[in-house]
Design a protein that fits this description.
The protein is an alpha/beta fold. It has helices spanning 12-21, 37-53, 70-81, 95-105, 114-117, 150-155, 192-205, 223-226, 228-235, 247-257, 266-273, 296-304, and strands at residues 26-30, 33-36, 61-65, 85-88, 109-113, 132-136, 148-149, 172-177, 187-191, 213-215, 238-240, 261-264, 285-289, 307-315, 320-325. The protein folds into two domains: 37-192, ANL, N-terminal domain (Rossmann fold); 194-333, Rossmann fold (3-Layer(aba) Sandwich). The strands form three sheets. Strands 2-1-11-10-12-13-14-15 form an eight-stranded mixed sheet, sandwiched between helices. Strands 4-3-5-6-7 form a five-stranded parallel sheet. A two-stranded antiparallel sheet has the order 8-9.
């Protein structure tokens, strides 16, 4: 038994807190769909109970192949709430690469968007460990093989509470696969403790507050969205989900939803500053960038629109951002 003075660290506690402190505040916005923090917590609990009813238990792997939609965000809490590990798969990989990750991770369940699942038709029969596939259909895409609707999965669950806690903070909360540039992708096992601490780091270096309105331009499959899935939830900000990166839609949401933060690679920033209707941000916006060094031209262009730029560097093996290029006093005057 753990000492009474010790609490095992887990980002699950972030959603528990925000659901108590901000029960009626919008936690997730996706088009016309909104979930308050209390609703978000109930959805995560129902997902955990549904997976439990499906036969998933502690230590099992549950894979998600989805764009940045609310179900992907909720999976970051619902899957580990059951004690299972989330495997968020890169949506840009080939069917063969996705098949390898599913087999290598030992995922027993796959939840996917129908547009992405349809691409797996040639390899579906070769999935060695996946016992059931659940589909989320936003586009009317025919998958081409048997799946079960995600709503039917949730119908197996209940709202019966599960403690937002773990008995060991070193338990695996997620498995993220590297790009595989020097060989087969490697599965990096994130712990509850590591995810908790890195999420706090995201809050600090990206300057998040409870007033943050965070736009999901960064893929959630990428290091669990650099742990911002947990970080923005921890501070009680609002997640704005985005199915695909589109400069027009990004500008629309910045203007209409009061976006204050987003993370993006320099290529995304180039698309934003070159958009014909680009204009100064209507409110202060913090942009955290990584993936490649942003050029001086890109930095000058995005800052001229009113952005506060935070430049970070990291690895899949370091939970995403690990090093921050902090602006030093006097540098702006050089």
């Amino acid at each position: 038994m753990a000492p009474v003075y010790r609490t095992e660290l887990t980002p699950l506690s972030f959603l528990e807190r925000s659901a108590m402190v901000y029960p009626d505040k919008p936690g997730v916005v996706y088009g016309d769909r909104e979930l308050t923090y209390s609703e978000m917590a109930r959805e995560a609990t129902r997902l955990a109970r549904a997976l439990e009813a499906t036969g998933i238990g502690p230590g099992d792997r549950v894979a998600f192949l989805c764009p940045n939609i609310p179900e992907m965000l909720i999976a970051h809490f619902g899957v580990p709430l059951l004690g299972a590990a989330l495997v968020a798969i890169n949506t840009r990989l080939s069917p063969g690469e996705i098949s390898y990750i599913l087999n290598h991770s030992g995922a027993r369940v796959l939840v996917g968007d129908t547009e992405l699942l349809a691409n797996l038709a040639p390899v579906a029969d070769g999935l060695e460990t996946v016992e059931e596939i659940f589909s989320i259909d936003e586009t009317g895409t025919e998958v081409g093989y048997e799946t079960v609707a995600y709503s039917d999965l949730l119908a197996r669950g209940s709202d019966h509470p599960i403690p937002w806690a773990v008995d060991d903070e070193e338990r695996t909360i997620s498995i993220n696969y590297t790009s595989g540039t020097t060989g087969r992708p490697k599965g990096v096992m994130y712990s509850h403790r590591g995810a908790y601490l890195n999420a706090l780091g995201e809050i600090i270096h990206s300057h998040h507050t409870p007033d943050s309105v965070y736009l999901w331009t960064l893929p959630m499959f990428h290091c669990n969205g650099w742990c911002t899935t947990w970080g923005v939830t921890g501070i009680g900000g609002t997640h704005i989900c985005l199915r695909q990166v589109d400069p027009a839609e990004i500008w629309s949401l910045i203007d209409s939803r009061g976006v204050t933060h987003f993370n993006a690679a320099p290529t995304v920033l180039i698309g934003l500053v070159n958009y014909p209707q680009a204009h100064p941000f209507p409110q202060p916006v913090t942009v955290t960038t990584a993936g490649a060094p942003p050029s001086p031209t890109v930095i000058e262009a995005i800052e001229s629109l009113g952005a506060r730029l935070v430049h970070v560097y990291g690895l899949t093996e370091t939970y995403g951002p690990h090093t921050v290029c902090e602006l030093q006093p006097g540098v702006e005057e050089l």
